[in-house]
């Protein structure tokens, strides 16, 4: 260790961060808060920024790390107004081509951007049923209303589209959490590797090197912060619609969703007729 490195003050908090990261039963949000504090003690702006983004989530206008884009199926929720009854919350899967053009122009596709903070992701995983969660895209209620209006124009006034959702695998959500925990673990390991035997707490220079090796970030001036995501998931790519030909009118093609709707209506009508004969 050089004399200039020995002169730097030691930074407390690494041991607490290490314990939180390695405790699989502890909330990842707790570990990120400890990382945030460690970055504060070390005056490391970019480390604090990274931890805060994973804690609070990413706004719509902010660049999203690629590993936070997950493959997702598109689903709609439908209420069917039939003679004498309403069949509510019938979920049906649809394709990208069955979305309204306005939704596709805003980037809604079979890739879900997970912008929420880790605590919300953890809560979603904990509340999940049957291994999937449903996440509404931005302006999902607006698109649902548009789809209902389009159905009325086509003469299907008994179909009320009540929601548009991404169906996301819980396993993939857990993968986001695991990716963040692994990067935190690597950061701690890099700091430990830079500390000579006998040193109890790291100094800012050691934290700086570990952060650069782990996250691709540097501290220092007040220039715009850039975080290089060097570990993006290969399979998680966003769906783009820029060069697609103009879509046919919504649901006027061979629509699997309305085949299912017709089948439900036929069954319901048969049940009503059977009851009337009794």
Task: Describe what this molecule looks like in 3D.
- There is one protein chain.
- By secondary structure, the protein is an alpha+beta fold.
- The protein folds into 2 domains: 102 residues, no CATH class; 133 residues, no CATH class.
- Helices cover 46% and strands 15% of the residues.
- The protein contains 10 helices and 6 strands.
- Strands 3-2-6-5 form a 4-stranded antiparallel sheet.
* Tally of individual domains: 2
- Give the termini separation: 92 Å
Secondary-structure element sequence? Answer: HHHHEEEHEHEHEHHH
* Percentage of residues in helical conformation: 40-55%
Averaging pLDDT over every residue, what do you get? 80
Determine the strand fraction and express it as a percent band.
5-15%
User: Structural class, from helix and strand content?
Assistant: alpha+beta
Task: Annotate the secondary structure layout.
Elements: H1 3-7, H2 14-22, H3 28-41, H4 45-56, E1 69-71, E2 73-82, E3 85-94, H5 101-105, E4 111-113, H6 118-127, E5 132-135, H7 140-153, E6 159-169, H8 170-194, H9 204-215, H10 256-277
Antiparallel strand pairs: 1-4, 2-3, 2-6, 5-6
Helix pairs in contact: 2-3, 2-8, 3-4, 3-8, 6-8, 8-9
Features:
278 residues, alpha+beta, four-stranded antiparallel beta sheet, 6 strands, 46% helix, elongated, disordered C terminus
């Amino acid at each position: 260790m050089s004399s200039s490195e020995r002169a730097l003050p030691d930074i407390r908090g690494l041991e607490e961060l290490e314990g939180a990261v390695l405790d699989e039963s502890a909330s990842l949000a707790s570990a990120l808060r400890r990382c945030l504090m460690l970055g504060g003690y070390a005056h490391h702006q970019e480390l604090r920024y990274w931890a805060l983004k994973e804690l609070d989530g990413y706004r719509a206008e902010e660049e999203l790390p690629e590993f936070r884009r997950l493959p997702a199926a598109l689903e709609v929720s439908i209420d069917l107004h039939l003679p004498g009854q309403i069949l509510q919350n019938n979920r049906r899967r649809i394709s990208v081509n069955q979305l309204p053009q306005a939704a596709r122009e805003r980037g809604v596709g079979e890739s879900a951007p997970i912008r929420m903070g880790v605590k919300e992701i953890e809560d979603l995983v904990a509340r999940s049923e049957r291994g999937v969660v449903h996440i509404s895209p931005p302006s999902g209620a607006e698109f649902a209303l548009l789809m209902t209006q389009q159905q009325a124009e086509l003469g299907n006034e008994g179909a009320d589209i009540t929601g548009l959702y991404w169906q996301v695998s819980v396993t993939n959500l857990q993968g986001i959490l695991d990716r963040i925990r692994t990067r935190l673990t690597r950061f701690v390991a890099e700091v430990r590797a830079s500390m000579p035997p006998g040193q109890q707490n790291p100094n800012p220079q050691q934290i700086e090197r570990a952060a650069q090796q782990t996250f691709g970030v540097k501290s220092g001036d007040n220039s715009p912060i850039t975080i290089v995501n060097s570990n993006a998931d290969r399979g998680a790519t966003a769906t783009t619609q820029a060069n697609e030909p103009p879509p046919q009118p919504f649901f006027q093609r061979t629509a699997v969703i309305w085949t299912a709707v017709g089948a439900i209506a036929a069954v319901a009508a048969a049940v009503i007729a059977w009851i009337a004969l009794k």
